[in-house]
Structure formats: C-alpha cells, structure tokens
TrEMBL record:
It comes from the Archaea. This is Uncharacterized protein.
Length: 202
C-alpha cells in the first residue's frame, strides 16, 4: 500500500512540475480578454519639409526604458511593427540630442501585472516621444511634464514631434501561460504606440 501511495505521490509531483514549467516557459493560451487602452497624445509641428532638409535615412532609433523582462518583450514587439512599415530599427540609449533619422523613445512607468493561469489582470502606464526628424532635445522635458508645450525656433527648420501617454487595463480569463500573457499585453501596447507615433495626422 505504501509503495502504491509513493508512486501516486511521485506521479503527482512530476505532473505538477511539468504543468508549472509549461505555465512559466511555454507561450500558449486559450482565453478571452477585455483590453482597453486610454490614450493622450500631443503633437507639435513646425514649417514644412523642403528639398534642403536632410531626408530620414530609413532608420528608426528606438529606446525602451523599463525595469523588468516585460520591457524586452515590448521592445521586440515595437521593433517588429516598425520594421513592417519598411524601416530598419537600431536600438540606442536615447539622449536629448539630434539624431540623423527618426527617433522613438518609450518609457514603461508603472507595470502592475497579476498572473494566474485562469484569471489575469494588468494595468500599466506607457509614455513615448517620437520625432520624425530625430530631434530629441525635448525628450527629458516632455517625460518630466506631459503638459509642458514645445516651442520650436525658426532656426530648427521642419519639425514633427509627438508625445503620448497610454494607460492599458486588461482582464484575461482562460488557461494562459505567463509568456503568452506578457506577449498579449506587449502586442496591445506596441500597436497603440506605433499607430499613434507614426500616424499621418498633424
């Protein structure tokens, strides 16, 4: 009897370990999600491009600042969407300087992810600064104060700058693994950032 009980215990432990590893490392899920993204976007432009303005090189300089593994996933998702638009992405540690092509800085401010295999929730605030011409001199000012307006100088020439804040809230029900849930969140945020940053409006 003891031998039978021991076998049952060992099998149970093995099954539990396999299930735990599945949840932790496999990207899979069958679920329904209720995801909302609130957006606040400011746009600034000055003048119009002309033949004397240096043309963007087709490169987008990308920087994503965050403190956990989620930021790495989000950076990959954003880079993939930008590349689908025909750009080459170069990751940099963004500084408040003028780059020689389009630049996009993204900051993950407050990630709050609760994961459960059957019921997961998340809220997070993401901020981005996009410059069509690569002028990131206003980067620190905008990140510090969303409502502070940008005033371009007539010496700056053509400028197109966008500053956005996105607040994501998500509830997902069903059997999902942790990698799947993080990717689900990253896909929604990346779509919002790239859509608004590269919008033809303004």
């Amino acid at each position: 009897m003891n031998l039978k009980n021991n076998r049952i215990l060992i099998v149970s432990i093995v099954v539990f370990v396999i299930f735990a590893l599945f949840l932790a490392f496999v990207d899979a899920g069958a679920s329904t999600s209720n995801t909302g993204v609130d957006q606040k976007i400011s746009g600034y432009s000055f003048s119009r491009p002309n033949s004397s303005d240096p043309a963007p090189t087709g490169v987008v300089y990308l920087d994503l600042k965050g403190e956990d593994g989620f930021s790495v996933i989000l950076e990959d998702e954003i880079a993939d969407l930008i590349e689908e638009k025909g750009f080459k992405v170069e990751t940099v540690s963004m500084q408040p300087v003028i780059y020689d092509s389009t630049a996009l800085a993204v900051v993950v401010n407050k990630p709050d992810i609760f994961y459960n295999p059957f019921y997961s929730t998340a809220t997070m605030d993401v901020e981005f600064v996009y410059s069509r011409t690569g002028n990131m001199e206003y980067l620190d000012m905008l990140i510090d104060d969303f409502d502070k307006p940008v005033v371009f100088s007539s010496m700056d020439g053509y400028q197109l700058l966008r500053h956005g804040q996105l607040n994501l809230s998500d509830t997902t029900k069903g059997l999902v693994t942790y990698p799947y849930y993080k990717r689900h969140l990253a896909e929604n945020i990346a779509a919002g950032v790239v859509d608004k940053a590269f919008s033809d409006d303004l």
